[in-house]
Every structure is written in structure tokens, then in C-alpha cells.
Amino acid sequence: MEPRMPKCYKKESKPSSFCPGCGHSLTLKNLGFVMDEMKIADSTVFATDIGCSLLAWDFFDVDTVQAHHGRVTAMAAGLKRALPKSVVLAYMGDGGGYAIGLHHLIGAARRNDPITVILVNNTLYAMTGGQMAPTTFKGENTSSSPEGAFADEEPLLGPEFLRPVCHKEAFLARTSVDNPFELKKYLKEAIETQKKGNFSFVEVLSYCPVNWKTDARGTMDFMDHLKEIYKIGVIE
Amino acid sequence: MFSHAEGKIELLTGNEIVVRAALAAGANAFFGYPITPTTEILQGWAQEAKDNKGLIYLQTEDEPAAGFGLLGAALGGKKAWTTTAGAGHLLMQDAVVVAEAMRIPFVAYIGQRGGPSTGTVIYSQQELSIARDGGNGEGFRMVLGPSNLQELYELMIKSFDIAWRYRLPVFVLGDGYLSKMTGEVELKKSATTCPAKPIVQNGKKVVNLRNCYSLEDEIATVIKEELKDFGKIAKEIEMSEALNCSDAEVVVFAWGTVGSAAREAVRKLRKEGKKVGLFRPITLKPFGATRAKQAVRKAHSILIAESAFGKFGRLVTESLFGLEGLKVERLYKPAEGILSEEIEDRLRGMLDGA
Amino acid sequence: MITRILIGGEGGQGVQAIAKVLIHAAHASGKHVAHLPNFGVEQRGGVSLAFVQIGDEEISYPKFREADVAVLLSHRSVERSKMHIGTNTKIIFDNSIIGQKELLGFRTEKIAIPASHLAKEKLIPRVFNMIVLGALTEEIGGIKEKELKKATLNYFNDKIKKKHELKHFNLAALEMGEKTIKGLRK
Predict the structure, then answer these.
(1) What is the pLDDT of residues B331-353, one digit of tens each?
(2) Closest CA to A123 of A186, A15, A201, A206
(3) Which residues of B touch C38 (CB under 8 A)?
(4) Contact B2 C30 (CB under 8 A)
(5) Complex ipTM over 0.90
(6) B209 to chain A nearest CA, in Å?
(7) H or E segment at C132?
(8) Are residues B200 and A106, on separate chains, in Cβ contact within 8 Å?
(9) Residue-range domains of chain B with CATH
(10) CATH of region A17-234, choose from 3.90.190.10, 3.40.50.970, 3.40.190.10, 3.40.50.720
């Protein structure tokens, strides 16, 4: 049986600062289990970005640093060049990764930087109060798109968008927080890909009940709808 | 005529000197993005890295990526640095505030060019304010202003020592003239600078570094500590040149290459027995206010010369605040060089007018 | 003493090459030197100026007000150099490019070297700037001939490797410049 909490959790920082029902806690918990299982907690640098991801700065008993504006990808590129034997994880949200820092993702993907990017997609800017993001889907109401977002625009499909500029051995996948088995599997495969010297990227569809303004049932329904827009699986 | 045997004197451009200095200081990682007038530095490092696999080199997708790449490498224990200019310098500030927040060593050579925006690729002293205070914090960084090629070489080496000794961002604030000009420089065989150690993966204990706080008193406490520390460091590294100031009736204030023009003007007038002096801060941050005050003890007037409209002038007048009866004249030429003859003419006028 | 030289021409004419070879030759001859290039954002097609200083004492600032020698190689460079030409400035100009009339405003000594024409007729067009350099070095003096040749060959080393005859053309151009200016003195 799996332990209740990952061994690499930093106990002093729990309970964490994430809102009740937030998908970050679930994503990070599963990432913790993966680091335990792969025995890499000591050799990992976990780099977080701006937005809710920054609340994870002391989440793990693992070397953790911070960037902002989606530049954590670039910071990870520097970390990996300095520490080729360490595992470098860049953890960010969809606003940081797909709006303000998208070209850093493209840069790292094109260079096939051996890093692992974990991008949490909850379709909006959560920390600032639920504004429209590149992942906001057609008709989704946000605090900055009260009449429904992107009437004529498609939401950005991150891994699909990056695939054409990636090395053939790069690993790109999308999964969701309501499937911990698959989430762990993809995170593990991503880190293994990094260890083999290639770029890896996992987008995690995640809950934000506070900004979605959903109850438990509504959150599940929202997630089901997301999965219709964002295809789950490995992006070949 | 000088003897070539005295030291290893070479004829190099400022940009070439910057690369040589970085290597002499033990730099081993460079992240950058092309921009005139500093592009040859990126190219120079690329050439060095081609033949030396121990050197990390990355041409990034933009200046913030160069800055953040540098931060990552510095966290990982590399002596990492970058260079940029003008609008690129503005973007680079994004990474510098992170260096300030998490106390990460950071070295950047800046080749100031004319602004705003694309401006010119040639020259200015307009980037002083953003180098000193271009962030959204208290400006925990050091700024060094070389006045000639030899000083450029020495201050570049020093910048690596300061950055790694105190874990701070350091700007060496050059300009297009300094970058592009060719002249003589005496290179050192080796230089001792503070070694780089990994901040993360340091083999000792887990490090959780952050740049975000939930409460205002929480961040205020951190800032107060930083300010105290910064003040202490500032005293240790503050540098300035005071030439012929002890009996000077008129003192010219200038920095960087304009400082060289001013020095020439002062020397020429001194030969004629005119009581003029030069005060030139070498560290623009920290700014040596006490020494500046000392320099004008006997002066009735000062002349502030800069290739910008008062960015330096405001620092000078602030540092001299409270001195009564001191007349201040200004020679402000934004984005344009200032010749020693121009400074000389103005000084003559000030001496005659007294 | 410091000799201040301004060289002005079009981007692509080899103005900065003249300056670079000159300062290396002067440095090797035991002089203090400085060179500052000055041009706009364009890689080609703008006016290119070179501020060169050669002296027995240290040079402190890379720019100067009045040149001792101004070398003018294009129409537009005449206008751009105006502010650096005084009554004591000697002008060396390419009279196969610039007409005497264009320089009427300057009441100062002028030396006409038809470098562009000579290069085309007697050598190859691209070594025109080395004809100018040969004349300029002869005019300012104090630079060893051996060092001038060495600096020239060093500067064009990569090009000469690909096209060996460039060695001959460049050296011949230096000599032609020197002879032309000497001939004018007689």
C-alpha cells in the first residue's frame, strides 16, 4: 500500500498554502511519490514559477528555487547545464508557460534541453483571481472575459503545439489530476526521458474550484468538459 | 614610447577585453542574446567555448532567458555571466530582481547605447538609472563604471569577485565607445577572484529559496536585513578617483568614458596653473557621497558632465545636498559623446566668471 | 605629441580596415594608439567614420574635436566630417570620387590621391583602401614599413589564404599609395 504522504514532503510546510480542492496539491503529492520511488529527491532541483506554482517553494524537502513570468524554463535550462547529473524540474502554470513564457518553452523544446517541464493547466490565472489564459476555452467566463472568452480563438494545446519542434525522443503528454496512476506514470516517463538526455513535458489538467466557482460535483463536470477539449495521452 | 617588455600589452577592442577579463576571472558559463554594441562579446565567448568544452555557452531566445539561464547556472555553481545593451538591458532587469531577491551572483557587462527604445547603436550614459535602480525593489546591486580600456579589464575581473563574494548582481556599465574602440591593455597572467560554489545541490543541506512572501511585515523584515548587509558591503567596495581636488576651485564631476575626457581637460588646465579638479565615482552604486563632499571642500563651483540628461547629475547634487554657496553648472549631452575640449572650454568659462 | 586622424567613407569601402591596420602597425612601431569606429544601425550603406589617434603619450579619450589629418573617401563623408576639420587639418581625399569643388569650403592643405582610379586601372578595385593607407602612413610618418606590411598581411590573413594573389595586390597598393604621395611633393 502506498504511504499517506511522500517521504520527500517538507512536513513543516504542511498543511500547504493551496486552497482546499486545488489540483496543485494533488499534482505535487504524486510528484512526491515519483521522486520517492525513483530515489531522486536528493539529486533533484525543483524550480517553480509565478502564480500559484510559487506556493510550492517549500513544499518538498528538495532543493527548490523560484523564477517568475514563465522564465523558470530558462532557469531550468541554466540549472541543467551547470548540473548535468541532477534532475531538473520546471513547475509552472498555464499563464506563465503558455502566455508570458511561451517562447522559453519553444526555446527549450527546440534545443532539446534535458529538463522536465510540468505545467498545470486550470484554464485561467488563478492567483490573480481567475483571468482569461491562453487555455481558456471558447465561451468560458472568467473575471477578465465576462462575456465568454475567445469567441473566435482556439485554446492553446501546449504539448501538441510543441511537438513539431521537439526532438523525436522528447516526451510530451497530457494527463489530469483525477487520474493519479496515469499522472505518476507520465511524470516518471518524463524524468526518465530527461535522464536519457531529452526534453520532456507533462501538462496536467487541474482543478481550480475557487475561480471556477464550482462545488465538488461542478468541479468534476468541469474536468470532464476539459478532457473533451484537451486530449489525454502521450502526444506523438 | 613605452617598452613592450614591461607587461603583456595587447591591442584589443573593449568587447574583446571583456571576454579576456571574464576568462581571467574564472567565468565558465555565458548566456546571451545579440545586441549592438556588445554582440562581439557573445561571439567571442562562442569561439572560446568551441575550443574549450569546460565553458558553457548558450545563445538564448531573448534577454530574460539569458538572465534566467545565468541564474540557473549560478545556482548550480558556475561562474555565469551575460552582456547586453539598451532595450536589452531593460529586459535583463527582469532576471536581476530575482538575483536580488534570492541573493544569487550575477554579472552583466552593459554597453550603453542611445535611447529610448532602439535609439542608436553608438553610445550614451542613459542606462545609469536602470543599472542602479531598474528593479521593483530597493536596488541591491553594485554598478561599476570604467573610464578606459585598462579599467574595463580590471573592473570586469573585480565584478566577478564582488558578485560571488557577496552573492549580488553586479553591472559593469560600459558604453558603445568603450565596447567598440581599440586600444592598449595590459592583461594579467592570472587573477584571483572568489570561487563559485553551488547554492543548490551543495552536498550539505536542502535549500528552499523563494522570492515571494505572503505578509508585508515578513518581506519588510527581509528587506531591512538586506539593507543592513548592503550598507556594510557598500563600504567595502566603494571606489572613486579624486584628481587635484584638495585645492580645486572648480571640480568637474564625470563618470565612465566622460571621466576620461574630464581627466584630460583637468590635466591640461593644471599645467597652466588653473585650480581645477576631477571627482569620478568608479562605483556608481554605491555612490561615495562622503568623498564627493570632501572633493569640493575648496570649490566655489562644480561642473557635472554626462551623456544623459541629469541621471548622474541628480546623484551628484543629492550627494552634495546641504553644501551652501556651491554653484552647479551642467554639461548634459544625452546620447552624445563629450570631448575633453568641451569640458575644458566650460571650465575656463567658470574660472573666468568667478 | 598625438596625431589625430579622421577617416570617412561609405560602409563597405574598408574605412575601418584602414584604421585597424594603421593602429596595429603604429602599435608595433612603438606608438600609443586608439581607434573608435562610428556608424549607424545599418551593416552596409551608411557613412562610416574612424577616429584614430597615434602618439608618443597615452591617449585618454577615443574621440576628438579637430583632426590633424582627415581622409575623405565619399561625398557624404565630407558633410559628416565637417565639424572635425579646422584650419590646421590636412585633407587627404580620393579625387577620383570627390571633386575639388566639394572641398572649396575648407581653407586648408589638400592632397588628392586618385586611389579608386589607380586600384581599378593598375591593381584590383578592392585594394583601393590600402592605396589610401599607403599614402596616409607616408604622410603622418613614424610608422615602420616592415610593421605596416606585417599588419596588412595579418589583417587580411584569412582572405589571402583563400586567394593568394591578394598578398601581392595589398602590398603593391601600399607601395602605390606611398609613391603617389611622394610624387606629389616633388
Answers:
(1) 999 999 999 999 999 999 999 87
(2) A206
(3) 122
(4) yes
(5) yes
(6) 5
(7) helix C128-140
(8) no
(9) 8-237 (3.40.50.970), 240-353 (3.40.50.920)
(10) 3.40.50.970
